Amino acid sequence: MTGHPSGHPSALPQPWHLPFELAWEALRAGSRPVGAVLVDAGGRVVAAGRNRSEETTAPPGQLAGTAIAHAEVNALAQVPTGARADDGLRLYTTLEPCLLCSGALIHSHVRHVVYAAADPMWRGVENVPGVGGLIAERWAHREGPVGGPLAAFSRLLMDIWTMARAAAVPAAPGPGLLDAPTVHAAYAALLPHL
Ligand SMILES: [Zn+2]
Question: What PANTHER family does the annotation carry (predicted)?
Answer without folding.
Answer: CYTOSINE DEAMINASE FAMILY MEMBER, TRNA(ADENINE(34)) DEAMINASE, CHLOROPLASTIC
